[in-house]
Amino acid sequence: MKKMFFGLMGLFFLSATLTPTSNAWAGNPYKIVWQHCGTGAEVEMVIRCRLVGGDECFANWQGHCDEPGAGLD
Amino acid sequence: MLRKSLSIFLLSFISCKQDINQFSFEPISVQKPLCVSEIGESLEILEIQTKYPISGTPTILKSDRYYYLFEEGIVTSLHQVSLDGKVRKSIDFGYDDKLNADAITQVVLKENRVGIVSRGNLVVWFDENLEEMESEKLPFMANFHFIMDENRMISFTNRIDDQEDFDILIQQNGEVKKELPIRKDEYNFVYKSYSPFSEWNGKVLFSQAFNDTVYVWDQEGFLPLFHVNFGVNAVSDRLTQIQHPLDMLAFFNEKKYHYLPGEVYGMDHDRVLFQINEKGNRKIGLMNIESKELTVYPGIVDNSISNMILYFPQFSKGGELFFGISGEQILENYDRIPDSFKHRLSPEYAESFFIYRLKIKSE
Fold first, then answer.
1. CB-based burial, A19-43: b 16+ in 10 Å, e otherwise
2. What is chain B's mean pLDDT, rounded?
3. Reported ipTM
4. Is the CB of B73 less than 8 angstroms away from the CB of A52?
5. Tens digits of per-residue pLDDT, A16-66?
6. How far is CA B185 from CA A58, B124, B189, in A?
7. How many CA atoms lie within 13 A of B98 on its CB side?
8. Nearest CA to B304 among B337, B326, B330, B334?
9. How far is the alpha carbon of A22 from chain B, nearest alpha carbon, in Å?
10. Cβ-Cβ contacts under 8 Å, A50 against chain B
11. pTM for this model (two decimals)
12. B309 and A57 in contact by Cβ < 8 A?
């Protein structure tokens, strides 16, 4: 939950400071990479920033897949 | 004459319809997981003890002599592991190094070399002692390259390059071909994938998130192999309504849709395994090309040695499926694992990483 909270805070901050005029977000200027978390059954996604050509990666966006997913019982 | 023409028209319509039906399959869900004993001939479990516990889900690669674990969590490290599970060497990647950890897009193998791909188009090759050898510029930029041999490579761009209009780039004997035009009206979904390609009967399978079709690349070209018909649960044009990452998060939290997340595993002559996301749950689909049956299982369970739920493989290679399990997962399931497996674990097992190597039983 903590990583989701910080990820969302980061996104809110960026959406407030970088008002998405036109289709800038759709163009993925910050190279967000969505990543499935854990090896469990539940779909849980975190955002990773990867650099392709610049210093554009905002660490506070990122989540780490450090929690195992929900189990199959 | 009119009746004859009408009959020919109806017959050709029916035969076309049959062709479509043979290509598109409605999945049949079962409650019981797929058991290792049903699909496997033998299972080997390796415990790997690294200096620090591996964070996240490392990428597993296997050459003839070593495993490689590429960790992209709190640290970015490459571990070389002997086939009996001993860590031989490791490289840590920092943010000020020549190879910037944030710029690494993939790790690839070619013969006995391991290559770190930076920014999707530059490979730095290391030898078996993890000594740097040389750099190589790839013919195109892509998030995932699948090297078949010296003359053949297929790559999934995964929207790494805003100027590129195609998802698939193929280099074969010096020629470059492009397939699957990018739908620019959809949200620019870039994602980490472990097995978008998989070798199968000398061909290469391909699967991509939200495109419910599995493709095959062979001498004939790049063609759809089968489509999964999710009916009213399909995502269809929902991604065209998404422009912002927050919308995408909302989409994932809706848990309303069924789709392929883009992970595929070739099994044997007639069978293809792939991941399915069903309303927020990850499942495993098994397509039997011969019997034309598509079955969806809630996951794969090791009922032979550890009684662990493996969920799904990370990749398949040479008739074997490879799974990665953290020691933490084993600790959480300690009550369900048999004593015979408990005795095999090291005292520090909870901080280890485990590779399950399953040799597939031919049907």
1. eeeeeebbebebbbbbbbbbbbbeb
2. 91
3. 0.86
4. no
5. 333 333 333 344 545 678 888 766 778 778 777 665 533 444 555 566 665
6. 26, 35, 11
7. 8
8. B337
9. 10
10. 102-103, 105
11. 0.86
12. no
